[in-house]
Amino acid sequence: MSNIVVVGTQWGDEGKGKIVDILSGSSDYVVRFQGGNNAGHTMVVDGKEIISHLVPSGILQKKKCFIGNGVVVDPMVLLEEIDYLKDNQVDVSPDMLKISNRAHMIMPYHRAIDNAREIKKGADKIGTTGRGIGPCYEDRATRRGIRFADLLDPDFFADKVTTIMEEKNFYLEKFFDTEPLDPKEVIKEYMALRDRLLPYIADVSVILNKGMDEGKKVLFEGAQGTHLDIEHGTYPFVTSSSTVSGNAACGSGVGPCRLEEIIGIVKAYTTRVGAGPFPTELFDDTGEAIQKKGAEFGATTGRRRRCGWLDMVILKNAARLNSLTGLVITKLDVLDELKELKICTGYEYNGEIMEDFPASIKALENCTPVYETHPGWQSDTSKLKSLDQFPENAKKYLARIEELSGVKIKILSVGPGREATIILDSFF
């Protein structure tokens, strides 16, 4: 397969960064197609941890990387990340990274509105990262967004910002009772970044399609997870973009027939950051043990991740929504010490068993997971190099995941480093 899409199957934080980093080694281009700097990918290379928020993970493999039109980008965060990667001896020159001229820019008023909303909601807040992602997508949908192409014409950019900020300041002052922002200062701030940004701006769609015509192998990198999708996730406790594989085409400017393999990343258990229903969440010592051993803290926010048993209802939902052709199981080693494991095979709601993921948030909040229990293996898997070496109970656990999901496992990850990866089925 030449063109592969990598998506998360849960609520994000499944370990996509590491897998993209590995698959990038056999790719020519790596593309980020949705989300913003509310996502973080953690890679461990030669024992050193490197975190990216906007730049695709493939940059560590010295592959040409692209930020697609489906991503909303905070220019200041992007430049800070470029500097950070340069400090870590990573080549992030304009020859290695391009930003779509159709990608939308996060502006200071987006961040101000995002934070003001969460404060106003109080206990009803949805757990946004406050980085302006949602308000930026809102402006894109209402045709009031600022795109990177607008930076090419300073006068047009200034006029557009001035006009938009009249409404934004009214909103900030009159509804949120917060301080307005000065349009002249915003324009000045972004014009100061313009010279550094211009060499990175390009028509990503044209470059990608030309590359594929020439036989380039392209890896499409998603952010967040399927169940944070704006349409298919646990709405309203979701992100502001479409995280499923279908958006890889729209968010990067290629046709859907170009996508040849869809790989779903799933932890051997389930985690979630922020608010929202989580049927298999554990509140006991087992949950605490998984959280501690798995070092479950958000790469972007540092927030503690909520932990629970593997939920096959959401995995089967992800398999259907994304047309998954393969699975990657990550953090299997985190379960090594447990005496027994549970897998959720359905939800009980109002006396009935549900096997499909409900649309109603109220129904999901009142679902009780239906579990089957599996014996643990209680031995260290973190140093194993082939599936044959795994304890029988670990093999049975993995086989049950394949059986319930209907999707073949193609990669196993038993640690954060590249070397702690077992390829069961070659992609290229």
Automatic annotation (TrEMBL):
CDD domains: AdSS (cd03108). The active site is at D13, H41. SUPFAM superfamilies: P-loop containing nucleoside triphosphate hydrolases (SSF52540). InterPro entries: Adenylosuccin_syn_GTP-bd (IPR018220), Adenylosuccinate_synth_dom1 (IPR042109), Adenylosuccinate_synth_dom2 (IPR042110), Adenylosuccinate_synth_dom3 (IPR042111), Adenylosuccinate_synthetase (IPR001114), P-loop_NTPase (IPR027417). This is Adenylosuccinate synthetase. The keyword Cytoplasm applies. It catalyses: IMP + L-aspartate + GTP = N(6)-(1,2-dicarboxyethyl)-AMP + GDP + phosphate + 2 H(+). Keywords: Cytoplasm, GTP-binding, Ligase, Magnesium, Metal-binding, Nucleotide-binding, Purine biosynthesis. Pathway: Purine metabolism; AMP biosynthesis via de novo pathway; AMP from IMP: step 1/2. Belongs to the adenylosuccinate synthetase family. PANTHER family: ADENYLOSUCCINATE SYNTHETASE. Its main location: cytoplasm. PROSITE patterns: ADENYLOSUCCIN_SYN_1. It comes from Desulfocicer vacuolatum DSM 3385. Its EC number is 6.3.4.4. Its cofactor is Mg(2+).
